[in-house]
Amino acid sequence: MSNPFSYVFSCIFVLLAHGAMLFNVFSNGNYDDVNSVVVLASVVIGLDLVYFTIMPFFRQQTYAVDFMLILILNMGLIFQSCFGGVDFQLKHFITVIAALISCRIGYLVCRDHRWIEDKKKYIWICIGILMGIILLFTGSRSMWISLGESTSIQPSEFMKPLLVLACATSITEQQKKHKFLCFNIVYENIIPFGIIGAICLFQWWCRDLGSIPTFGAIYVSGFLLRICYPKGKFSKKPIIIAVASLAVLAVIAVMLAPPYVKEERLFVDIWANKYTTGHQQCQALIAIADGGWFGKGPGHGFLHTVFAYQSDIVFSSISEEWGLLCAVMSVFVLLMMVAIPLVNPPRSYYHGSMCAGIAAAFSVQMALNVFGSCNMIPFTGVTLPFISMGGSSMVVSGLMAGMLVAAQSPVFKAPKRKKNEKKPQPVQPVQMQNIPQAPPPVQPQQEIPPQPPINYTLTDRRK
User: Fold this and answer.
1) CA dist 23 to 38, 257, 312, Å?
2) Is 152 helix (H, G, I), strand (E, B) or coil?
C-alpha cells in the first residue's frame, strides 16, 4: 500500500457516510422494534470493516473504485431495508456479497490485457451460448429462466461484460487495414458489428427492448475507440455513415415496435391512463413530489405498494423517503465510480476501451432508470446499478466494477515464447589473452635518390 494515510482516511469517510444514514433511520425511521435498526446497522458497519480488512491483501495501485463500490452497495442495502418500514433485507444482502465476490473475479480475469485479448474467440462463442440458453430454457419469448418459486436468473445480463470485452481493442489490430471500395476497413471490426446486430434482434424477439440502448452504448463507445485510436489516420466517412445508420435504425425500430410497446411505453399519456398503463409512472411522479428535497423519512412512503418499487422505479422510492437530494447524491456516487478510471488513464489502450464501454453501460442504464421514473423519456423498466433489487443485475454490475479495478491496477507479462523457437544463447565474454597478436606492419624502405656521377681527374703532381 503506497499511502496508508489515504486508505485510512477513505475508510473513515465511508463509515461516516453510512453512520449518518443509519442515524437518520434510527431518529426518523418507521419501525416498531429498535432491534431491526440494530441488526441493519450491525450488518452494514460489519461489512464495511470486513471489507476494509480484506482489501489490503490485494495488491493494487489504487483503491478508489473499491471504496466507491462498498459505499454505494451499502447505501443500496440501507435503502432497500427501509421501503415501507425498517426491515433488514437478507436477500438483497446476499446479492451484495455476490457483487463483491464477482468484483474480485473481474479484477483477476481482466488484469492481463494480453491474456484476455487472446481469448476473444471464446468471448464470441460465450455470447452465442447465452443466446442459445435463453432460447432453450425460457420456454417462451422471455429473458428470464425460473429456478424456483421466488428465484430466477436473467442470462442476457451476462452478455453486457462479454460485449464490452468483445468491443475493446488495441492499436495493433487497427493498423491492419484493407482497401474496400473507397473505405479503409479492418476485417476484425466486422465481428463486433455482427454481434451487436444479433443481440438487438435477439432482444427484440424476447420482448426486452429496454436493454437495447445499453448494448448500443457499449458498441458505439467501442466503435469510436477502434477508429479514433491515438495518432491514427481515420476518415470522417465511417462516423457519418454510422450516425446516419443509427438514426435510420431508430426510426425503423419505432415503426416496427409491437403494439403494446407503442401503447404502454412510447406514446402513452400517463395522466389520461393513470389507473391503467400510466399508473406506475404517475405514482412515481407523485412520490417524488411528496418527498421533496429531504424526504418523508425512512419507511414512511407509500410507493412500496406499487409494482417494481424496488427495481424499475427505485429512484422514485428513494426520493420519496430520503429526499431528492439523497437520490441525486447516490447517482453521483455511481458516476464518480465510473469516472475515476477515465480521469486516471488506464495503463493500456485495451483497458481504456474496456473502461469506456463499462462507463457507457452504467451511464445509459442509470439514465434510463432515472429519467424513466421522472417520465422524461419512455419508461423502459431497467434497473439502477448497485441499488435496485436483482440478483443477475447485481452480480454483473459487480463484475464490471472489478473490470474497472483491473484497468487501474493491471499486470503486464512478457509474451510466451513459442515451443519451436530456440532460446538465444548468451554471448560469452572473449578472453583477450588468447587472441594471437598480429605482427607489426612492415615499414616501407625509403628509396635513395640516384647520386650524380663523380668525375675523378688525375692531376700531375710534378706541376
Assistant:
1) 11, 48, 27
2) strand
Helices (H), 55-155: 64-80, 90-109, 113-118, 120-137
Any bridge partners for residue 153, and if so which? 145
Q: What is the mean pLDDT of residues 171-193?
A: 74
Other C-beta atoms closer than 10 Å to the C-beta of 314 total: 28
For residue 313, give the nearest of 366, 370, 271, 265 by alpha carbon.
370
Asked if residue 367 is part of any domain, the answer here is: yes
pLDDT band at 103 (very low <50, low <70, confident <90, very high): very high
Closest listed residue to residue 196, CA positions, set 208, 183, 213: 213
If DSSP codes are grouped into helix, strand and coil, which group holds residue 146? strand
User: What cell does 133 get?
Assistant: 440458453
Q: Report d(CA 81, CA 322) in Å as an integer.
A: 13
Least confident stretch, 199-203, 256-260, 308-312 = 256-260
Quickly list DSSP for 51-76. HHHHGGGS--S--HHHHHHHHHHHHH
Contact 301, 321 (CB under 8 A): yes
Radius of gyration of the chain measured on its C-alpha atoms: 35
Establish if 135 belongs to a structural domain. yes
For residue 144, the SS3 value is coil
Contact residues for 105 (Cβ-Cβ < 8 A; gap 6+): 399, 402
Please tell me the total count of domains within the chain: 1
pLDDT band at 402 (very low <50, low <70, confident <90, very high): very high
Instruction: Tell whether the model's pLDDT for residue 361 goes beyond 80.
Output: yes
Is the Cβ–Cβ distance between 205 and 198 less than 8 Å?
no
**Alpha carbon distance 342, 336 (integer Å):** 10
pLDDT of residue 463: 42
pTM here?
0.81
Instruction: Report the percent of the chain where pLDDT is more than 70.
Output: 78
Output the average pLDDT for the chain.
81
Interhelix angle 314-322/64-80, rounded to 10 degrees, is 80
State which residues form the domain around 14: 4-408
Residues 268 and 293: beta-carbon distance below 8 Å: no
The verdict on residue 422 lying in a domain is no
321 domain residue, yes or no: yes
pLDDT (0 to 100) of residue 438:
55
Poorest-confidence range of 52-61, 178-187, 298-307, 413-422? 413-422
